[in-house]
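Database export, one record per block. Field names are fixed; values are copied verbatim from the stored entry.
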Amino acid sequence: MKKNDYFIGTCSDLTHDGRGVVKHENFTYFVPGMLINETGNIKVIKMLKNYGVGRLIELSIPSKHRQEPRCPVYKQCGGCSLQHLGSKGQQEFKTKRVRDALTRLGDCDVEVHDCLMMEDPWNYRNKVQMPVGMKNNHIVSGFYKAKTNEIVPTKSCNIQNVKSNKLVNRVVELMEQFKVNPYDKELHTGNIKHILTKHGYHTDELMLVLISFKRKIKDLDKIVTILIKEFPELKTIIHNFNPRKDNVILGDEETVIYGPGYIQDYLLGNLFNISAKSFYQVNPIQVEKLYQTAIDHSSITKDDVVLDAYCGIGTITLSLAKHVKKAYGVEIVAAAIDDAKNNAKVNNIENVEFALGDAGEYMMELVEKGTAVDVVFVDPPRKGCSQEFLDHLIKAKPREIVYISCDVATQARDIKYLQDHYRADYCQPVDMFPQSTHVECVVLMSRVEK
């Protein structure tokens, strides 16, 4: 086969990023948009040494799990690459993805339970950050097309909460009205780079962050006056100044224009202050399932001392507090630790202690001071844990590790590294990101006595 040839093929599997795997004449092709057991006419658009890339031209046998995507710019945007796959199909895909990663990368044969899905898997994201630009002489907001600086305009993203969609659209209208130009990534002209919103699911509070290339925003006071009148749930507005010319979204300097500079929301009964830079899980419904699953299936007791590594603003630490004697949280980001300490005060939780620093070093400090850590909860960033942290974890000898991850590949790698000392006993994937290929996963590991 060569480029621009056509063939009839059947999809046998999906890759980790949701592309169909089609074998033809003992050669593998990756075909975006194709689902398992589907047969169709495929055009070869790229041929490499070990694989080819195809484009699905026409389906002759569709999957029973195929559904019509809701989004009109679904293919151009690429943010929801599984929107053509129904909920049952997404459950099968995500469960299998976790099982395959743990088996192949983690050398781990723990039973993987069916992924916990969302009853209504739409409009769930509580955080929205949309670039703005010009198209046909009008200001638009949307998402960058993959590997380009081209914005795919959209007024209603189906996975973002409805109120944030409305707020972003109104900001764009006001930018047009007051002639506030968007930033141009190539020419480095204009001003507004991104519109960021956060929404409290339980409180219905809204935050707006305007991210600008220049230190001042034209007619900002007029825009703010209009917005707070039209959106009574808008509790705070922040101006973030970011003069950088790279892809980093938030700058270091921010000014609170209106309100307290944060919104609040509840998670497992605790109230949290959420600032512009706070990390807070984007799916408020599923995160409660995720954390409750981790707590319910762990071995923690009222007599235990637990450590929450990578604790952020303290969401897991404070959720654990009522179940244990003492909960420690450690985080490398100073602003997050400040938020965590404040959140403990807001909720009158006294059996917690937060520290700024490296998680592994702090854990060893506790051990050296004679503080036995019974259970360690780990929820690292996508890159997973460092080898140094894992070495410290082994030396600390907690009886159980509860590993929560947003990237099962790095989780599997870390589990493999720990396997001489810890055994995976339980695995539960949770669909935190419906319509996308991402999946969150809880793995419980118990110490192996030698």
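Remark 1: The domain at 6-64 is CATH 2.40.50.140 (OB fold (Dihydrolipoamide Acetyltransferase, E2P)).
Remark 2: The chain has a mean pLDDT of 95.
End of record.
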